[in-house]
């Protein structure tokens, strides 16, 4: 009997020690607190690998972006730098879409494009540097001087970067505009930066044509024709503006090849870029980003990338498809280039096979090893896979989920995954090319189930947190740190702290975790807003702290987790605050939800949800609720009619409420009514920004009648 007691005791002690070891392994400290703790604040936190804020980028004489390209071109001259596909054929098919005009919903017929593209063609680092030298010399020949501004109004592509590096070498300032930005925003940006030159493509000339007469500084347009637009756009534009200097990028490079100029040296404090925020509220704001801001952030990214197992080689490829006018994509691409990795370019509409004819989508063709994505992209990838799995036989579903849960537990504690997982995940991995080694999520909070799925099935995923004003990165998870909801440690060269928000009860004394507004300091904090001194004063403290407006908490391992934004907090009639962005992130785990906006009236006690649903899920729901006999019957009923069906509405609301209970949401956070929106929220409709963020006021105004009915 004594032996049995000893064995049981030894077993329990061993298990407890193992659990404690695994817990510490999964919760290693990523930050260290430094300095004094002031009342109403936490201490400042710095990355555990950078407690002294090392800021210099070794190996660069001149701290600017062109010198990064020059340095890598010397190190890897024959390595592939930029890859691109050429358009061979376009097929147009009509499709109905709904847009907002004068606060009214209007149905229009739009031609939907399907593409046939070539395989990838590649430019080496040596070739890209030569093109940059020629582009710089061409700009000089056209009369552009250091300090002048070049506006980039074009989709993400290798040409975008060649033009940008040409401007950097000339000592010019680039300014960025989303290619989806409307004429008013483009006009505002062009005039504010006093841009004398604009880089664009033929497809965007009709937009430029609408505002060119109100842009007195613009004298030259450099353009490319990627064969995806009607050449009539170019002919009409040239006819309408005979006095405007129009030149192709190819002709600019030829001009520069015979008129060589030396590079213009620029310093750390010189402005390299004026980047416009996506404008979820009001007009876009121009953020001034210096060479020092860029180099500081890029060096931090290099140090972070160095943790990838096995390092990098010439076989690694990054897929670039997010807007280069957004700081997330821009800073990631320059960090990737700084370590000599190849970038293959894609487009959001051609990433997958759905918009292709007689060829594969960009991901399957390129087979990237590194891929960034905003939560909306990862959400669509995961839900597509999950819907496929849910149609498998019960035994297969059971085995998959068993293997999936075991594997997630193993990687969470830094242990190898099961061999069985490779068999189950192989087909899923093939959908992203089969070679992914690292993925990045940024731009908005990502749902924890999506994060868990990508980490387990595809590859390690790191969540990042940043904003334009901090040159893209405030914090980032370690590459192999798998903890849901966290955004990791302060980036190399930076620090953050939390500050009380008493009116919302977010306090640094809260238990179990300190909470408050995130303040950031470091050499990655940008110079300021263009022509908005009042915003600079409002957002900064005299000792250099930038007030992000985001609410965070410091977790057990000292990592930062984001709760919401100050502007997104809604106080209900019962005095409860709800964080609508956080709730949207939770509710997005529903397979029914394509997009969602949580709304709460300040004189009501509960929130509601506006949901853009997945069409197939709604039609399958109609069959399961016996509204339709089968899928053939369901397809014969208009999507709008199904979305208005009370039984469908009740089923969607029940699904959201089940998700709320599963995530332990408080009563005040559970939606009590739902509006199902049959039309997608698009940039053209004015309901989302080019960065896929909700324009809440626009959505509320568009559905005011339906919202009021929810509270009757």
From TrEMBL:
Source species? Anaeromyces robustus
- Family, similarity comment: Belongs to the ATP-dependent AMP-binding enzyme family.
Per UniProt, which keywords does this protein have? ATP-binding, Ligase, Nucleotide-binding
Any one Gene Ontology MF annotation carried by this entry is: long-chain fatty acid-CoA ligase activity
Q: Name one GO cellular component term.
A: lipid droplet
PROSITE patterns named among the record's database cross-references: AMP_BINDING (PS00455)
Catalyses which reaction? a long-chain fatty acid + ATP + CoA = a long-chain fatty acyl-CoA + AMP + diphosphate
Q: What is this protein called?
A: Acetyl-CoA synthetase-like protein
InterPro entries documented for this protein: AMP-binding_CS, AMP-dep_synth/lig_dom, ANL_N_sf
Its GO biological process terms? Answer: long-chain fatty-acyl-CoA metabolic process
Highest taxon in the source lineage: Eukaryota
PANTHER family named among the record's database cross-references: ACYL-COA SYNTHETASE LONG-CHAIN, ISOFORM J, LONG-CHAIN-FATTY-ACID--COA LIGASE
Domain AMP-dependent synthetase/ligase as annotated: residue spans: 112-530
């Amino acid at each position: 009997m004594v032996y049995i007691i000893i064995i049981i005791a030894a077993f329990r002690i061993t298990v407890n020690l193992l659990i404690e070891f695994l817990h510490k392994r999964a919760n290693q400290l990523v930050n260290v607190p430094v300095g004094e703790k002031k009342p109403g604040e936490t201490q400042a936190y710095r990355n555990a690998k950078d407690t002294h804020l090392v800021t210099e980028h070794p190996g660069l004489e001149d701290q600017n972006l062109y010198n990064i390209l020059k340095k890598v071109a010397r190190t890897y001259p024959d390595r592939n730098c930029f890859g691109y596909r050429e358009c061979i054929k376009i097929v147009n098919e009509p499709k109905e879409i709904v847009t907002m005009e004068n606060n009214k919903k209007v149905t229009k017929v739009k031609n939907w494009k399907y593409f046939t593209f070539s395989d990838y063609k590649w430019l080496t680092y040596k070739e890209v540097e030569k093109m940059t030298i020629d582009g710089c010399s061409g700009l000089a020949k056209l009369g552009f001087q250091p300090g002048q501004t070049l506006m980039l109004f074009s989709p993400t592509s290798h040409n975008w970067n060649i033009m940008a590096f040409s401007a950097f070498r000339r000592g010019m300032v680039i300014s960025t505009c989303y290619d989806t930005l409307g004429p008013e925003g483009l006009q505002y940006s062009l005039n504010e930066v006093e841009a004398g030159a604009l880089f664009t493509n033929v497809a965007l000339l009709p937009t430029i044509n609408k505002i060119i007469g109100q842009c007195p500084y613009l004298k030259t347009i450099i353009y490319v024709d990627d064969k995806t637009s009607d050449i009539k756009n170019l002919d009409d534009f040239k006819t309408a503006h005979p006095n405007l200097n129009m030149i192709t990028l190819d002709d600019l490079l030829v001009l520069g090849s015979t008129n060589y100029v030396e590079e213009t040296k620029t310093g750390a404090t010189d402005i390299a870029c004026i980047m416009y925020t996506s404008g979820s509220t009001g007009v876009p704001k121009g953020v001034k980003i210096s060479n020092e801001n860029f180099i500081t952030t890029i060096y931090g990214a290099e140090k972070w990338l160095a943790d990838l197992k096995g390092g990098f080689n010439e076989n690694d490829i990054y897929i670039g498809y997010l807007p280069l006018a957004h700081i997330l994509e821009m800073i990631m691409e320059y960090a990737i280039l700084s370590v000599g990795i190849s970038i293959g370019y894609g487009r959001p509409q051609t990433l997958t096979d759905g918009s292709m004819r007689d060829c594969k989508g960009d991901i399957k063709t390129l087979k990237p090893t590194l891929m960034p994505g905003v939560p909306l992209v990862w959400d669509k990838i995961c839900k597509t896979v999950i819907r496929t799995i849910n149609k498998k036989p019960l035994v297969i579903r059971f085995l998959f989920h068993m293997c999936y849960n075991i594997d997630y537990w193993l990687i969470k504690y830094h242990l190898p995954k099961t061999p069985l997982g490779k068999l189950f995940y192989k087909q899923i991995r093939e959908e992203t090319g089969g070679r992914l080694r690292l993925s990045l999520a940024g731009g908005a909070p990502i749902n924890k189930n999506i994060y868990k799925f990508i980490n387990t099935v595809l590859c390690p995923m790191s969540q990042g947190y940043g904003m334009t004003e901090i040159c893209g990165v405030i914090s980032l998870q370690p590459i192999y740190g798998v903890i849901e909801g966290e955004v990791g440690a302060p980036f190399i060269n930076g620090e953050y702290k939390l500050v009380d928000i008493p009116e919302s009860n977010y306090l640094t004394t809260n238990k179990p975790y300190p909470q408050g507004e995130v303040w950031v300091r470091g050499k990655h904090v940008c110079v300021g807003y263009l022509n908005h001194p009042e915003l600079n004063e409002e957002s900064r403290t005299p000792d250099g702290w930038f007030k992000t407006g985001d609410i965070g908490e410091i977790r057990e391992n000292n990592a930062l987790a984001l709760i919401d934004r100050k502007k997104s907090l809604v106080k209900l009639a019962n005095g409860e605050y709800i964080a609508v962005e956080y709730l949207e992130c939770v509710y997005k785990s529903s397979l029914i939800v394509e997009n969602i906006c949580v709304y709460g009236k300040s004189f009501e006690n509960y929130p509601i949800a506006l949901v853009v649903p997945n069409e197939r899920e709604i039609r399958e729901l109609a069959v399961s609720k016996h509204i339709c006999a089968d899928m053939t019957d369901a397809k014969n009923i208009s999507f709008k009619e199904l979305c208005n069906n009370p039984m469908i509405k009740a089923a969607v609301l029940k699904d959201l409420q089940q998700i709320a209970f599963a995530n332990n949401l408080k009563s005040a956070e559970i939606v009590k009514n739902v509006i199902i929106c049959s039309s997608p929220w698009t940039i053209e409709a004015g309901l989302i920004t080019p960065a896929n963020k909700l324009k809440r006021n626009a959505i509320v105004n568009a559905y005011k009648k339906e919202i009021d009915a929810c509270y009757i």
